[in-house]
Write a structure and sequence with these properties.
Elements: E1 2-5, H1 14-26, E2 31-36, H2 41-48, E3 54-57, H3 61-65, E4 70-75, H4 81-89, E5 93-98, H5 102-118, E6 123-127, H6 137-147, H7 161-169, H8 181-197
Parallel strand pairs: 1-4, 1-5, 2-3, 2-4, 5-6
Helix pairs in contact: 1-8
Bound molecules: adenosine-5'-triphosphate (ATP) and magnesium ion.
Length: 199
């Protein structure tokens, strides 16, 4: 399966999602993360510590893709319409992370309009970095997106500082020392399951 992670807005958790989805898939079979962002955040993540899958950039992708059962592609924020067309064409599933705030939701609407223009129905929205209760931001964002008829994944990723630690240490979140490390990881496990069952 080829899964691409994209968004118009920056900082919505694309790289975090790419790394953790790849970590989930790597438990089952050979997985490759293609770092398609010129900032190379995923590459640096893996260089800081070590991830249980290979991270390569698009220039190395052709060779390593041959050996991989699953491929996750991290991309740069702010894709142009053309980029989005190519991104959607190049994968089986396009995951669009979106944080539950007005700016990200606005950007999301732009993405979806662009995707509709492509006639692509393989995308799913993933709500990310959801603040804990009593905040209702997550619920409200989900309602707004579903009311607009958009495909939102049931799984969602909550805000845990363990994810920042994982990025700093260059590991997967279940490998960091943090009270919430396991529950943070369980959010991505649920996402991985959902994506695979809806394949
Ligand atoms: N679920 C989460 N809980 C808490 N912090 C998070 C979570 N997901 C991501 N972050 C943090 O939010 C910031 C942005 O995340 P990330 O780099 O994954 O986003 P991005 O969409 O790839 O950004 P860019 O557009 O710059 O590539 C990082 O500091 C990351 O550690
Ligand atoms: Mg990124």
């Amino acid at each position: 399966m080829i899964i691409t992670i994209a968004s118009f807005k920056g900082g919505v958790g694309k790289t975090t999602t790419a790394v953790h989805l790849a970590a989930y898939l790597a438990l089952q079979s050979t997985t490759l993360l293609i770092d398609g962002d010129p900032n190379r955040s995923a590459t640096r993540w893996s260089e800081r510590g070590g991830l249980p899958f290979k991270v390569v950039d698009e220039r190395q992708a052709a060779k390593y893709a041959r050996k991989a059962e699953h491929i996750v592609i991290d991309t740069q924020a702010h894709p142009e319409q053309e980029d989005l067309e190519a991104l959607a064409d190049g994968c089986d599933r396009l995951i669009l992370p979106c944080t539950p705030d007005a700016l990200a939701l606005d950007a999301m609407m732009l993405t979806v309009k662009a995707l509709h223009q492509l006639g692509s129905d393989k995308y799913r929205i993933l709500l990310t970095i959801i603040p804990p209760k009593p905040s209702k931001d997550g619920e409200e964002a989900r309602k707004m997106l579903t009311d607009a008829g958009l495909p939102v994944l049931t799984s969602e990723i909550r805000r845990y500082s363990a994810f920042k630690k994982a990025a700093l240490e260059g590991t997967v979140v279940n490998g960091v020392t943090d009270k919430k490390a396991r529950i943070a990881w369980s959010d991505y496990q649920a996402l991985g399951k959902e994506i695979q069952t809806n394949e």
